[in-house]
Amino acid sequence: QHNAVYMILRRLAEAERNPVKRMLMEHEADKLAGFEVATCAAFDHVTWVTQEDHDAVQAVAAAPVRNDGVLPICGSPEDAPPIARRPDAKRVTFLGGLHYPPNAQGVLWFAEHAFPQVLAAQPDAILTVIGKQPPEALRSLGIPARNLEITGYVDDPQPYLAETAAFVVPLLAGGGMRVKIIDGWSWGLPIVSTRIGAEGIDAVDGVNMLLADTPADFAAAVIALLADPAQNAKIAAGGRQWAVERYNWRTVYRGWDRIYGATPTATAGNHA
Fold first, then answer.
1. Which domains does the chain have, with CATH numbers?
2. pLDDT tens track for 69-91
3. What is the pTM of this model?
């Protein structure tokens, strides 16, 4: 199972202001793209996390790359009920390892450019950043201490999620799927994401999440979830239903049965 990792570096390079760093990132992305094409050619079967990942690798390949279909990353949403959230929830929550450059880039973009607009409309909103190695720059953006909580890694995020009014995925770079969206849906949280953040996922704006790509639009979507309980509940329920119906291992695993059933015995240099 594969996702186009080189696209992460390529997108990070597009946003890099330092010309030397940008050149190095672009060079590394090109090398990684070639490696990914060669790796896919060495296997009997290749499945893809998203159709976009297959298309991205195909775009840099001289010949057709193996394609045994899309098998998305899923969860088991029916194993637990949605998180019971407080009706007066005011947290705007980001969850993810911040050692991963796209996560750090995205949360800084949101905190600097969108969250101040949220505060102007909802002064009691709290930006909660959960994940290891948070960037120090978060603390120097001028967000009042009462409106910013940086937890670092936590064993159990559920107490924070129970107070979450908007679960944000403000990514500007990435590849594959954002598993945090599948998790957020399973938890019954209303999600606001960029289109890159939701790439490869069957996201329907206004049904199972809110999509926004500019700071103003992203802030407006978050404000809507903070200010409108009915809209908040609608988006949360739509996402939860989507996870149960489309991103559930109980149904998607059949695709893996098909792949393994068609896989010959591996020989040297030819792997499944």
1. 6-74+249-261 (no CATH), 77-246 (3.40.50.2000)
2. 888 888 888 888 999 999 899 99
3. 0.86
